[in-house]
Amino acid sequence: QVQLVESGGGSVQAGASLRLSCTSSGTSFRDSSMAWFRRAPGKERAFVAAISWNGNSFHYASSVKGRFTITRDNSNSMVYLDMNALKVEDTAVYYCAADSQTNRYLGTYYEPRYIGSWGQGTQVTVSS
């Protein structure tokens, strides 16, 4: 199992950019596909982006496609979410997540039930 800690959230104006980082400790990071979820006020936790354990495949929710980019650095056990052209509706707590099974990649089908480890979350607030 991996332990995850996010950083990089903050308050920005619409149109700005932010980079979220997630650092992992644990022996299985290199074999774990990773994802970002977010929970907006009053809403369920929702899938944002995912990247396969080897970094060769990645998928995005339609609401962020073309604006957000997920990457990973297996040598440093890090995963990132670069967020550009932020919108007010991107306001949420963002969570880093690790697949509960190694060497599995579900693309846009990630749901909380497939997640084995969560970070504590980092707040992103976008104002108009």
Number of strands: 11
- Cα separation of the termini: 39 Å
State the helical fraction.
under 10%
- Strand coverage percent: over 45%
Shape: globular
Question: Which helices and strands, and how do they pair?
Answer:
Blueprint lengths: L2 E5 L2 E4 L4 E8 L8 E6 L5 E7 L6 E3 L7 E6 L4 E6 L8 E8 L15 E4 L3 E6 L1
Parallel strand pairs: 2-11
Antiparallel strand pairs: 1-3, 3-8, 4-5, 4-9, 5-6, 7-8, 9-10, 9-11
Can you summarize this structure?
With 128 residues, this protein is an all-beta fold. The chain has strands at 3-7, 10-13, 18-25, 34-39, 45-51, 58-60, 68-73, 78-83, 92-99, 115-118, 122-127.
How is this structure best described in words?
The mean pLDDT is 96. It is built from no helices and 11 strands. The strands form 2 sheets. Strands 2, 4, 5, 6, 9, 10 and 11 form a 7-stranded mixed β-sheet that branches. It has 128 residues and is mostly beta strands. The protein is globular, with a radius of gyration of 13 Å.
Provide tags for this entry.
128 residues; 11 strands; single chain; 7-stranded mixed sheet; 4-stranded antiparallel sheet; globular
